[in-house]
TrEMBL record, chains A, B, C, D:
Family the UniProt entry places it in: Belongs to the aspartate-semialdehyde dehydrogenase family.
Protein name: Aspartate-semialdehyde dehydrogenase
GO molecular function terms listed in the Swiss-Prot or TrEMBL record: aspartate-semialdehyde dehydrogenase activity; NAD binding; NADP binding; protein dimerization activity
The protein's annotated pathway: Amino-acid biosynthesis; L-methionine biosynthesis via de novo pathway; L-homoserine from L-aspartate: step 2/3; Amino-acid biosynthesis; L-threonine biosynthesis; L-threonine from L-aspartate: step 2/5
Species in which this protein is naturally found: Daedalea quercina L-15889
EC number: 1.2.1.11
Amino acid sequence: MHEGRKINVGVLGATGTVGQRFIALLSEHPFFVLHTLGASQRSAGKPYISAVNWKQTKYIPAAVREMVVQECRPECFRGCEIVFSGLDADVAGPIEEAFRKSEFAVFSNAKNHRRDPNVPLIVPLVNASHFSMIQQQRALHNPPLHKGFIVTNANCSTTGVVIPLAALEKAFGPIESCMIMTMQAISGAGYPGVPSLDIVDNVVPYIGGEEEKMEWETLKILGGVTEGEDGRKVFDMHARQPLRVSAQCNRVPVIEGHTECVSVRFARRPPPSPQQVREALQAYTSDAWTMSCPSAPRHTIFVHEEADRPQPRLDRDYQSGAGVNVGRVRQCPVLDIKFVVLANNVAIGAATSSIVNAELAVCKGII
Amino acid sequence: MHEGRKINVGVLGATGTVGQRFIALLSEHPFFVLHTLGASQRSAGKPYISAVNWKQTKYIPAAVREMVVQECRPECFRGCEIVFSGLDADVAGPIEEAFRKSEFAVFSNAKNHRRDPNVPLIVPLVNASHFSMIQQQRALHNPPLHKGFIVTNANCSTTGVVIPLAALEKAFGPIESCMIMTMQAISGAGYPGVPSLDIVDNVVPYIGGEEEKMEWETLKILGGVTEGEDGRKVFDMHARQPLRVSAQCNRVPVIEGHTECVSVRFARRPPPSPQQVREALQAYTSDAWTMSCPSAPRHTIFVHEEADRPQPRLDRDYQSGAGVNVGRVRQCPVLDIKFVVLANNVAIGAATSSIVNAELAVCKGII
Amino acid sequence: MHEGRKINVGVLGATGTVGQRFIALLSEHPFFVLHTLGASQRSAGKPYISAVNWKQTKYIPAAVREMVVQECRPECFRGCEIVFSGLDADVAGPIEEAFRKSEFAVFSNAKNHRRDPNVPLIVPLVNASHFSMIQQQRALHNPPLHKGFIVTNANCSTTGVVIPLAALEKAFGPIESCMIMTMQAISGAGYPGVPSLDIVDNVVPYIGGEEEKMEWETLKILGGVTEGEDGRKVFDMHARQPLRVSAQCNRVPVIEGHTECVSVRFARRPPPSPQQVREALQAYTSDAWTMSCPSAPRHTIFVHEEADRPQPRLDRDYQSGAGVNVGRVRQCPVLDIKFVVLANNVAIGAATSSIVNAELAVCKGII
Amino acid sequence: MHEGRKINVGVLGATGTVGQRFIALLSEHPFFVLHTLGASQRSAGKPYISAVNWKQTKYIPAAVREMVVQECRPECFRGCEIVFSGLDADVAGPIEEAFRKSEFAVFSNAKNHRRDPNVPLIVPLVNASHFSMIQQQRALHNPPLHKGFIVTNANCSTTGVVIPLAALEKAFGPIESCMIMTMQAISGAGYPGVPSLDIVDNVVPYIGGEEEKMEWETLKILGGVTEGEDGRKVFDMHARQPLRVSAQCNRVPVIEGHTECVSVRFARRPPPSPQQVREALQAYTSDAWTMSCPSAPRHTIFVHEEADRPQPRLDRDYQSGAGVNVGRVRQCPVLDIKFVVLANNVAIGAATSSIVNAELAVCKGII
């Protein structure tokens, strides 16, 4: 575990939904110290309490209330080594690049750089090994960067499903096909997000771009980093065994917690039994926990035995939402095994992932 | 179309959720005349208005308010030719049999006789041909029945999905595999049914027995009626081509309307395109419509073009809930084609199905 | 009843929430004929189907789908005699005035002219007599108008409560004090309106400006029209007996239907009994019904006997939402009598009111 | 503060909704030690984990999972000094009396003994002084009790409102009239409680017996204990100044947290200003806090400044739900001052109140 110095951090997009969550989590962090808050020009110059429309169930941390919000420019973040980005996708791209260029370690929740061939897309409980791409990312800059880099985390619905999938691949070898059907919480859409008239007494069977993200991101995350003939590293997109992913995404009237029905087919024949799957999920531990990242959950995957669990309202806050819940592991008449996943979309699905990624980078000595 | 005489009908379980719906529909029917209402001993002898805890958005039909509730015994239903059963499964079995034995045509929404090898399980927009089993069902009685029989309709979640599946098999030949994920309305559980503490801000990823029902009923409904070597008719359970069905059932905070994410693989290679599928669904017409059953929908399947439809709140009442809605027809990376179905669980998924079944029986001269 | 000619009408703000409701109602009207749809410049020139994000449970009327949306300028509405305004308050003021000046009869759901001393604020089941102000309104223009005028209807929460209050004053004389606590549906805020994160599993005990509107509008509506010394007519704001109104407004997770807890104190001592109040409410009939306005409800006020009614989900659609529901009439230990009101905020609380107002104007020969 | 020994406690009705909450709170208590769990015969003999249908968002405390459930008879609770009763009203009466007779201190959440003239009805942040009745309650037994007594806490909706009322009476003298309109959470009805079909997209403007409880309990709690001519103590029901209370109770689709709109008229003329009221509420401190009861909240009343607060979802967990939230303090045109109260019905409104009452009894040396 990281035993040493405190590290100053900043938050980009500090007044938004994800930004608020970053602040709530970082204000109680053992070694990250909230130093600078950045938001749009409209908010800059105001005390945080006046700039934000705070929507968390915990009140604004006292230390943050009167901090003056800055613009999202690197020169305003002097003194920070790390910035966490909760920026909206329409502005995140160039701002995050500017911070990287100024030698900040950028941990982003935005989608903008997820498909960048030199930017790792890291779900901290799955593919910490992808940090190996950082060196190449720095070297590509002119002049090469010494400390700056960007790491993104995955879409909230992707995160929930890749954790059990990684556990299964680790135990039983490659997965060949995966069908996912999601029931996603309204908080996944930010604020104001989903109009209430669209979702009270209703389901919306469509979330723009979400299915494509899940089908693509899953391959990048579960795939490896291999070296091409020219010596350059590439994300192999699960090349050792083609993986077909089909996602169907729905919005449901739930505040927090994405529930996902998953069915998988393994390459290996015969496939593992439901009991073997349960044990493999239960036994899975992440590098983040092994390396003592303080925000990593003890139980990466909590496996429920009751027939009707996990449920978002009852299970989303287990371990502060930092792990995932799995239940109803059983045989699938079409593929091999089906089960239900519940992941807290605003914790492990968003801010918590970025923070554990940063903890991993510190523990690995990259920061 | 049936042009002739009025037919007196009764309702078993008249005070329950499905019974109330039967009453609302039958009170406006062109040729069925509500004649007798039956319920438990506790309700018998009371005027309907005093016996029922009416929970429909339309008020109790005036003609029914003061009707005296009877016990569910055949001798109390003299004057009726047809009874509709909205009885609970714990009492439906023997009561429905007693009415059959007394030469009533019984149309049941209960699950008790669905697996009976001589009782048709009919979704009226799909397998009206299964009425051919009635003769054998009557003949098996000792002495043989002249008029009595039982016909059941399917579970509400099964009904929604077999209608588009039937349309696809008609157009493109056998389906080989089918994955279904449901988001089911609370009204599917009756009243009092789902406690509010279990479903507000929540999803329950389990409905007892529901997945098994969907996986089994689909085969009986989509299969044919064939003749064994002994001359006896049997339901072949889709024997011409084995069909694997996998269902994952969830309860969501929606009042009415089951939404289902479906993915299918066809036997035929190459499979039809999404556009061909859309056209086949749109073009599908039911025998019930062709035979002018008054409660059958003009559009058996309404195919939505908008990306975010169908939605339960907006689309469940189209055609009084007598048809089904399909949307988001697109390719599936794992199977062939995926789409979203919305069916009104209390209309086509329950009472409306029984009534159209009875209309079919009348039009076919079985009654 | 109006027996004669068809009258062409237009809708301003046709793509908005209230506009959609106007269209749904007018498309089935016996003598108003939908002739022109107006919306913002962004929508103008498009077929209605492309301009609107239709959110009604009934589908877009066939005749309207391809109508080309116009700008909200009088010259685009030639051929119409009446325009219904569902415009937002930030633009409604001058647009409605321009139509009046061009000799249109304007029936507005917007708040802009409600406080105008020459514009009647008419709840059609209450104060049809206020049409007497139209002549003065026209005469004030230079040159005087022949046909043009503006009539507004009330805020949706005001409408629900003034109807039973009017019935009580008619039967028992002036009310002295009135306490109102509302539980208002999300549809009252339009679309996108209330963010779902604000209202799922929540109550918001504040609606900006709503309490002031209720406290003020009630006085204008329940008050009379008197003549000043200079011969000019004025709304007397219930001057014959000062009426104190206190409103507390809340938003609750209900789609449609405002529920209001009301308590009143009468000037008259002793006050009427609950039974007398019930009878007076039940017996109240509106001028709109007496004059056979086709959209007026037979039961202006439906009085429920069951202890737990009215409820928005079960009762909001009674009489297509054109009347109001009252229940739980009982003594109040602090004032005299308390009761619960339910009014459909998008029907009698909005579009239906404007339409009945227009029907009244036709029946009274003002149009 | 109590500095000494641990005290063994038991829970009656341990498997119910309130019982579960007692267990969650007591398992982390500084000096109460969970020793015995009692429930119905059906549960007795089973390990708690098997007997309970646990519905809390925190998992079952490890120490409790395997505790064997006992019957609710005093002999099964040897070793306990205190029992907390979460029993249903249909059984609570005689069981609680049996425990009192066996010299247990009984802290009950049930309504059965609230109207008993010798049983204090104590909201711990309001009327700790009513413990003075215990001596008389014990003496009335034959033979007199040494340790046994019953103390009840109030109905969840009463609790929310009497706390600010007590603060106002302390600062400004007697209140003369009080109008209360509640929007109560579904958890107030226990489990299974409110059927979801009754409350999704709905409001139920009636809760059986609730209004009478609020109107009566408020008087007992806010009144004093006076001595009659015969030397016997009596609860004076606010006799120094008659207080009229009118309650209107509604159920809304909220999981936890009762929101109440309150308006009061003071005896004193002129009444205090809204600002004076705000300050008095803010400044109010309870005996429970002064005496260092560990479960008492630092802020008895948290006064919100934002126009749209308190809201149940955002504010119910402040101070673990042990205090109350007040907002929107403003003038009332009919009475004097109106405001909004939010109280957590399962914390300060139920289990937390019983526990603080027990802490008070310990601190006062009654136990």
